[in-house]
Design a protein that fits this description.
The complex is a heterodimer. Chain A is of the alpha+beta class. Chain A has a single domain, classed as Alpha-Beta Plaits (2-Layer Sandwich). Chain A has 2 helices and 4 strands; from the N terminus they run E-H-E-E-H-E. In chain A, the strands form 2 sheets. Chain A has a two-stranded antiparallel sheet. Chain A has a two-stranded antiparallel ribbon with strand order 2-3. The longest helix of chain A is centred in the last third of the chain and has 10 residues, at 44-53. The N and C termini of chain A lie close together (5 Å). Chain B is of the alpha+beta class. Chain B has one domain: Cytochrome p450. Chain B has 16 helices and 10 strands. Chain B has helices at residues 2-6, 33-41, 61-68, 104-111, 118-123, 125-141, 148-153, 155-165, 172-183, 189-212, 218-227, 233-264, 266-274, 278-292, 324-327, 362-379, and strands at residues 44-46, 56-58, 73-74, 146-147, 299-303, 307-309, 312-314, 319-322, 384-385, 407-409. Chain B has a 5-stranded mixed β-sheet with strand order 1-2-8-5-3, with helices on one face. Chain B has a 3-stranded antiparallel β-sheet with strand order 4-10-9. In chain B, strands 6-7 form a two-stranded antiparallel sheet. In chain B, strand 6 and strand 7 (312-314) form a beta hairpin. In chain B, helix 6 packs parallel to helix 16 (362-379). The chains are: A alpha+beta, B alpha+beta. At the A-B interface, helix 1 and helix 2 of A face helix 4 and helix 5 of B. Bound molecules: protoporphyrin IX containing FE and iron/sulfur cluster (SF4). Iron/sulfur cluster binds next to helix 1 of chain A. Protoporphyrin IX containing FE is lined by residues 75, 97-98, 109, 161, 242-243, 246-247, 250-251, 254, 294-295, 299, 351-353, 357, 359-361, 364-365 of chain B.
Chain lengths: 64, 410
């Protein structure tokens, strides 16, 4: 599974960082960055939570 | 109930119900019963506002998220169909990017996102802890009962925003006095307006100082945008004022109303007080945000292109009101939604809104509330309400729900 992040859409809510600290961080402006685009299987539930709470539909989890 | 029996209310099925609706007197923490009925029976329905306009009322969680995340839905209060507010609290004029659409909204919002990043906010935690401890020290040393709103809930966000913006310590008293008047129940509209102008003038002056001599604070960052030609001085002041106003009464009301809700649910309060687990405190913050949903009366928007949703077409030029307080009680998302349960996973609540306008200050608000809920009840374990619940006055008509005062003792 691959995580895709569209940083253009990000509104710096910080929600993905709270939901999946091992997968997301923020740059100096608070915009989300990916720490791992192919996270380990045990992190996928956290990523799904991040997808669900992102207010800007900036995160996707794709099957590839 | 008695009222509905004696009043000859004619059945007019095509007449849109009036909005806002009233809460049930005995359930001050629950959304109006009529909203729950609509959520079950007519999740998309027209309502009538004070000015006779008839926007759509959206009550289900999924529909609200879909609309708030849709770029065809505008936050610009000047758009045709925008559901206008008729409250003395509604304020005058526009307040920076909260009432703008992208791309201008994004351009301005991104200028001030940096200090709200999770790590930056975490770095402020010790300073917030100090503010909270200091206010508790003062309360413990002072007379009982005390009004928790005035002595504790309002000063916290005011002092924290001072810290963040970079308001010098010597000016804290001036700043706090005026911000208090801006939201005070007994202040006349003139007094509120006057206090608001005082604060705006003060912030404009401080931005001027930071233009000449930048420091490491948020006002300097905003001033930097003026220097770079990206904002004029007026827009910069408006932005600083938005950051102040948006985080002030909201956080204060969560502190006071949250404390009241916990005092009314002693089992939950005991769980929180006796736990050492910061994760439980964080979970309690999310649950109280969900359960209390203080930004009631709806996120309001105007639709700019026809949108099909829930078998209905909302037309361009029509208004929509997303009542988040009832979305946070949607049984499709939160099982047994009317129960306060600080151990549940409430993270999907939309107490901070949804879409591109979702609260910018949410990491800060969460941290402040974690410090407060994790400290107050431990330091004053015998805290109790100093009046009957029936005598507590709730802010039913205000745009931000809460209590006018909360007399407490210990
Ligand atoms: C518990 C406390 C808080 C609650 C419940 C809350 C709630 C909200 C909500 C519901 C919105 C969305 C408005 C809309 O969609 O129309 C919002 C926006 C906003 N909030 Fe908060 N807020 C809180 C604290 C704060 C704090 C502490 C700050 C800053 C210091 C802040 C700054 C903002 C700003 C700047 C916006 C506008 C964002 C935009 O339009 O892009 N809020 N807040
Ligand atoms: S949750 Fe979405 S909007 Fe918020 S920081 Fe992450 S990517 Fe950005």
């Amino acid at each position: 599974m691959k995580v895709e992040l569209e940083a253009d859409k990000c509104v710096a809510s910080g929600q993905c960082v709270l939901a999946a600290t091992d997968v997301f961080d923020q740059d100096d402006d608070g915009i989300a960055i990916l720490l791992a685009d192919r996270p380990a299987a045990e992190l996928l539930d956290d990523v799904r939570e991040a997808v669900a709470v992102c207010p800007a539909a900036a995160i996707r989890l794709v099957d590839q | 109930m008695a009222d509905t029996l004696v009043q000859p209310v004619p059945e007019v099925p095509d007449e849109a119900p009036e909005f806002p609706m009233s809460r049930a007197a005995r359930c001050p923490f629950d959304p109006p019963p009529a909203l729950k009925e609509l959520q079950e029976q007519a999740p998309l329905t027209r309502v009538r506002l004070w000015d006779g306009s008839e926007p759509w009322l959206v009550t289900r969680y999924a529909d609200q998220r879909a609309l708030l995340g849709d770029p065809r839905v505008s936050a610009d209060t000047d758009r045709p169909g925008y559901p206008t507010k008729a409250s003395p609290d509604a304020g005058e004029g526009k307040l920076s990017f909260i009432m703008m659409d992208d791309p201008e909204h994004a351009r301005l919002r991104r200028m001030v996102t940096a200090p709200f990043a999770i790590k930056r906010v975490e770095a402020l935690r010790p300073a917030v802890q100090q503010i909270v401890d200091g206010l508790i020290d003062d309360m413990l040393a002072g007379p009982r009962p005390v009004d928790l709103v005035e002595a504790f809930a309002l000063p916290i966000p005011s002092l924290v925003i001072c810290e963040l913006l970079g308001v010098p310590y010597d000016d804290h008293a001036f700043f706090q006095d005026n911000t208090k008047t801006m939201v005070h129940r007994d202040a006349t509209p003139e007094q509120r307006g006057q206090a608001s102008r005082e604060v705006a003038g003060y912030l404009a002056g401080l931005i001027g100082k930071r233009l000449a001599e930048p420091k490491d604070d948020l006002l300097s960052a905003i001033a930097g945008r003026v220097t770079a030609g990206e904002l004029d001085h007026g827009q910069a002041t408006e932005m600083a004022l938005l950051l102040l106003i948006a985080g002030h009464e909201t956080t204060a009301n969560m502190i006071a109303l949250g404390t009241l809700a916990l005092l009314q649910n002693p089992g939950q309060l005991a769980l929180l007080r006796e736990s050492d687990d910061p994760r439980l405190v964080a979970s309690a913050v999310e649950e109280l945000l969900r359960y209390l949903h203080i930004t009631h009366l709806g996120r309001r928007r105007a639709v700019t292109e026809d949108i099909e949703i829930g078998g209905q077409v909302i037309k361009a030029g029509e208004g929509v009101i997303m009542v988040n307080e009832v979305a946070n009680r949607d049984p499709d998302v939160f099982p047994d939604p009317d129960r306060l349960d600080i151990t549940r996973d409430a993270r999907r609540h939309i107490a901070f809104g949804f879409g591109v306008h979702q609260c910018l200050g949410q990491p800060l608000a969460r941290m402040e509330l974690q410090v407060v809920y994790g400290t107050l009840y431990r330091r004053i374990p015998t805290l109790e309400l100093a009046c009957a619940l029936e005598d507590v006055r709730f802010k039913n008509d205000a745009f931000i729900y809460g209590v006018h005062e909360l007399p407490v003792t210990w």
